[in-house]
Amino acid sequence: MAALPTEEEKDAHVLKGAEQDKLLEGIPKDEWEKDSLYSLIILGASGDLAKKKIYPTLWSLYRDNLLPSNTIFVGYARSKLSIADLRKLFEPNCKIIEGQEAQFDAFIKQNVYIAGSYDKEEDFKKLHDELDERESKVKAGHRVFYLSLPPFVFDTATQHIRENCWGTRGWNRVVLEKPFGHDLESSRKLSSHLKKLFSEEEIYRIDHYLGKELVQNLLTLRFANRIFSPAWNNHHVASVLISFKEPIGTQGRGGYFDEYGIIRDIIQNHLMQIFCLAAMEKPVSLDAEDIRDEKVRVLRRIAPATIENSVLGQYLGNPNGKNEDEKTGYLEDPTVPKGSVTPTFAALVLKIDNERWEGVPWILRAGKALNERKAEIRVQFKNPDGDIMPGNATKRDELVIRFQPNEAIYLKMMTKTPNSHFGMEETELDLTYSKRYEGVVLAEAYQLLFLEILRGRQIHFVRNDELEQTWRIFTPLLHQIENEKIKPIDYEFGSRGPREADKLLAENNFVYTGTYKWPGPGK
User: Fold this and answer.
1) Quick one: 502 exposed, middle or buried, by C-beta within 10 A (0-12, 13-18, 19+)?
2) d(Cα 204, Cα 210) in Å, to the nearest integer?
3) Is the pLDDT at 93 greater than 80, yes or no?
4) Buried b or exposed e, range 278-315, using 16+ CB within 10 angstroms
């Protein structure tokens, strides 16, 4: 029997044996050939995302032997850096446990760095020549261009990639990080630009929420369990709440956040991806295009969000906060423009105009500076018909899928209190991953998505028409907020958000009693 991972290994997300095999499942033995070179090119290698997420992910994949043996990591940015300089940037974010130091040194030796601009043809040709020379020594050369860049350089960078750095000895793939535009018009402009340069099969729009284990489990939960299918409709479901809560403020990065706000930053992308997987019809297969077709179909049946069905909030500092971040209100962040009306909290209601979901409110709620860290979906079922239990004590059943932290699926339900006549209490059927899968280390979202890019599988990536539909839903509301300077409601750092949001939930058939406490970890 394999030894359970140590706490240090769990913290570092070290994947071993069976967990490695599962991630590599479905890859033919000859797909990752020894005589092919795989180049993972990070544009914006000196930036925040690269040093905090991308390089640590590449290290973890290398460490766990999940990459092709002949893989190199090519950093590209304006900064003039040596490999030693680059290492100093990202090494503090890499989880290196005792005994892995030599392996990390070997990982560093697989790195290349080239300084260059994003608008100069000769710099991209220099990058191409470096790759071409290495690829000339092998049978094939495959290139992944990861754009860890601000959106305003997407156009020029992608133009130069296609014209001056496109590989000719194998496949090429381009990975884009959100935001994919600022509204419907800018998103269409970006999509039109990319369409002229690349095929849709070569574009990977990454939303890391689609790499989370419990988000991916939505398809299995819905379509592999007979018990849920008959109840997954407006005959049985009263309302659905999809939530994202963060207990931190902008932490000095308010200038960046203020350009987007909570709707663009979280709801239009992360929460809408969860929405689609929970609401869509059963696809004809698990093929990426069949799944994405169903996501688009359900999005097309949603009317644009409105201010009348929304609550917008902006956090104030908490004078009793434990640190400066908690004591500092959003408008007190020196990087935030004075008088900004950008929401840091939003709750809004969408309706799906189809036979399955007609009349069911879908509530999307996201906020910063709240009382806890949590992301989950709550499917709340209607009250039982002809309730015979005494005292009207029956509470609604609720299926809860918690994506983070402490992944879990549990069904909140009523049961008879032990030794009572017909006393009742709320309890749960509980699948807490840390209990049921003790010793299993879950892959991080970026790990899985990188592997999917290398495989050429787009099931967990956003297609152009999905993007078009989500922007169609939110652009009118976003423009109204900005054009009319709609002032958000104040709420205190560390609270549950504006009280008006609770009223919005109640008006849309979501019943919150506050009487049930989940006994799992991170409650």
Assistant:
1) middle
2) 12
3) yes
4) bbbeebeeeebeebbbbbbebbebbeebeeebbbbbbb
Q: Read off the CATH number of the domain in which 113 is found.
A: 3.40.50.720
CB-CB contact of 96 with 58 (8 Å): no
Whether 394 is in a domain gets the answer: yes
Q: What number of residues does the chain have?
A: 523
Complete DSSP assignment for 56-121: HHHHHHHHTT-S-SSEEEEEEESS---HHHHHHHHGGGS---TT-HHHHHHHHHTEEEEE--SS-H
Q: Range of 42's domain? A: 7-177
What is the phi/psi pair of residue 160, to 5°? -70, -35
Tabulate helix, strand, coil % of the chain (nearest 5).
Answer: 40, 20, 40
Q: What would the pLDDT profile of 184-212 be if each residue is shown by its tens digit?
A: 999 999 999 999 999 999 999 988 878 78
Q: Residue 408 and residue 148: Cα distance in Å, rounded?
A: 31
Q: Is residue 522 part of a domain?
A: no
Q: Last residue of some domain: 161, 177, 193?
A: 177
Share of the chain above pLDDT 90, in %: 63
Q: What are phi and psi of 123, to 5 degrees?
A: -70, -40
CATH number of the domain to which 417 belongs: 3.30.360.10
Mean pLDDT of the chain: 88
What single DSSP character describes residue 177?
E
**Whether 93 and 221 share a structural domain:** no
pTM (2 d.p.): 0.89
- SS3 per residue for 242-293: EEEECCCCCCCCHHHHHCCHHHHHHHHHHHHHHHHHHHCCCCCCCCHHHHHH
With 0-12 CB in 10 A as exposed, 13-18 as middle and 19+ as buried, what is 52? middle
Same structural domain, 172 and 221: no
Tell me which residues are annotated as active site: 270
> For residues 57 and 65, what is the distance between their CA atoms, to the nearest angstrom?
12
Work out the average pLDDT over 437-464.
84
Question: Position of tokens 């999005």?
Answer: 299
Q: Among 278, 270, 276, 282, which residue's Cα sits nearest to residue 298?
A: 276
- Residue 442: alpha-carbon gap to chain centroid: 15
Residue 293 falls within a domain, yes or no?
yes
Distance, in Å, from the CA atom of 231 to the CA atom of 241, rounded to the nearest integer, reads: 16
Q: How many domains does the chain have?
A: 2
Q: Are residues 238 and 100 in the same domain?
A: no
* Euclidean distance between CA atoms 502 and 514, whole angstroms: 12
CA distance 434 to 390: 37
Of all residues in the chain, the percent with pLDDT exceeding 70 is: 91
Least confident of 178-182, 199-203, 274-278: 178-182
pLDDT digits (tens, 9 = 90+) for 468-515: 999 999 999 999 999 999 999 999 999 999 999 999 999 999 998 877
CB 107 within 8 A of CB 83: no
